[in-house]
UniProtKB/TrEMBL annotation:
A GO term for molecular function: transcription coactivator activity
Low complexity composition bias: residue spans: 214-228
Annotated stretches, region: Disordered: 185-228
GO cellular component: nucleus
SUPFAM superfamilies linked to this entry: PH domain-like
Compositional bias (Basic and acidic residues): 186-195
Official protein name in the record: Uncharacterized protein
Length: 228
């Protein structure tokens, strides 16, 4: 569950990530640009415009059109995102930058594969609706990940919690995100995937990967840290 996750077409013709069991989508945000590094393309990177989807377990970017890279969508499991920071430049658009571990064999914190660097630019409108919801869900997921012992872990963002979170969410008029209630999901139950997401075999183990690139050992940014 990283490159090209399963997609389904909903009633209005839009492509959506196929939901896992117990997955609840919180919002959809159009007008974003995703930059991703270290993926298997000719230039080992990907840049595309499209839509961003937030659920209780992941972020998913879906490109508005296909290109020669072979990538159409990319999965960002919330528990595998690290060093994420919100950047709010004086000149330029808000963007969310960080790293995400590949959720494949050899990936994950204790694997040999490096994380992917990513940056998501919000080209149209503000982030007052999106970011608080993202930060809350991602922070809870990563706290549960850090406290987990092996595979004995509880769901940090159960549907009941998400329902309460969404019902009390602040709606920023400048943020064009569309919010979805738990009882009014855009994807039909018959389109759900039959199995829960699979993480790397070392899910829950201590982080051992360290980048060998010069200057990579600097201070890490927390998930809520702002930059300008």
């Amino acid at each position: 569950m990283s490159a090209n996750p399963a997609l389904v077409q909903i009633s209005n013709g839009e492509l959506w990530p196929a939901p896992f069991p117990s997955e609840v989508f919180v919002l959809r945000r159009e007008g974003v640009q995703c930059e991703l590094h270290g993926v298997q393309t000719k230039i080992k990177g990907w840049q595309a415009r499209g839509a961003l989807y937030l659920s209780n377990i992941r972020l998913v970017f879906v490109a508005s059109k296909t290109d020669e890279s072979g990538l159409v969508a990319f999965d960002f499991p919330l528990v595998y995102i690290r060093n994420d920071s919100l950047n709010q430049p004086i000149f330029g658009c808000n963007n969310l930058a960080g790293q995400v571990w590949p959720a494949v064999e050899g990936g994950g914190p204790a694997g040999s594969l490096p994380p992917h660097d990513f940056r998501v630019y919000f080209k149209e409108g503000g982030i007052g609706t999106f970011y608080p919801l993202y930060y809350t869900l991602a922070d809870r997921a990563k706290q549960a990940f850090a406290a987990a012992e092996g595979r004995n872990r509880a769901d940090p963002n159960p549907p009941t919690f998400v329902a309460g979170l969404v019902s009390h969410a602040f709606v920023d008029p400048a943020d064009p995100s569309t919010i979805y209630l738990a009882e009014r999901q855009p994807v039909g139950e018959e389109q759900r995937l039959p199995e829960a997401p699979r993480y790397a075999a070392n899910y829950g183990e201590d982080e051992v990967y360290e980048s060998m690139e010069p200057g990579a050992a600097g201070a890490r940014q927390g998930p809520g840290q702002l930059r300008t």
